């Protein structure tokens, strides 16, 4: 399955907006959020799992005989840092373009590029570059 870059950003923005402090989203909540974002449940859950593996969100699994229940607990500090670097549409578009031009759109590379793009834009705004 392919990890969609826009899904990463949209899901993190949505979790930041809708997941309250000490609140947890389970499978039913996540299916609802997927519908709100117009993302297929399969792609949504895949992205959630990858965001967990990248340590951008805290998730736990409750595996039963019949299904895997995922609980999204919070966005991590690293996740918030990443989100700040991709929040702005201009930063996000440039980040995606640079990563695609380099031929590498892994979460780690996207995060590194986003950080560099954000710093570059900030320096330009301040007239330091």
Task: Walk me through what this model shows.
- By secondary structure, this protein is mostly helical.
- It has helices at 5-18, 27-37, 41-53, 77-86, 89-102, 107-125; strands at 57-63, 68-75.
- The chain has a two-stranded antiparallel sheet.
- Helix 5 packs across helix 6 (107-125).
- It is elongated and about 55 Å long.
Distance between the terminal alpha carbons, to the nearest Å?
Answer: 40 Å
Q: What class would the helix/strand composition place it in?
A: mainly alpha
Helix content: 55-70%
**Which regions have little confidence, pLDDT < 50, spanning 5+ residues?**
none
* Portion in strands: 5-15%
Write the H/E string, N to C: HHHEEHHH
Strand order of the largest sheet: 1-2
Number of strands: 2
Q: Please tally the helical runs, counting DSSP H or I stretches of 4 or more residues.
A: 6
Q: What would the principal axes of the Cα set say about the shape? A: elongated
Overall radius of gyration: 16 Å
Largest sheet data? 2 strands, antiparallel
Rounded mean pLDDT is 90
Task: State the main characteristics.
6 helices, 63% helix, 2 strands, mainly alpha, 129 residues, two-stranded antiparallel sheet
Helix-strand layout with pairing:
Blueprint: H1 5-18, H2 27-37, H3 41-53, E1 57-63, E2 68-75, H4 77-86, H5 89-102, H6 107-125
Helix pairs in contact: 5-6
Task: Give a brief description.
With 129 residues, the protein is mainly alpha-helical.
């Amino acid at each position: 399955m392919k990890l969609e870059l826009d899904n990463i950003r949209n899901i993190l923005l949505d979790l930041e907006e809708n997941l309250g402090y000490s609140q947890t989203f389970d499978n039913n909540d996540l299916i609802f959020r997927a519908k709100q974002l117009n993302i297929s449940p399969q792609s949504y859950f895949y992205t959630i799992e990858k965001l967990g593996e990248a340590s951008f969100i805290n998730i736990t699994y409750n595996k039963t005989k019949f299904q895997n229940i995922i609980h999204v607990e919070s966005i991590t500090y690293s996740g918030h840092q990443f989100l700040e670097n991709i929040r702005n549409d201009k930063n996000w578009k440039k980040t995606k373009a640079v990563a695609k031009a380099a031929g590498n759109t892994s979460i780690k590379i996207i995060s590194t590029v986003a950080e560099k793009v954000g710093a570059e834009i900030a320096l330009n705004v301040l007239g330091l570059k």
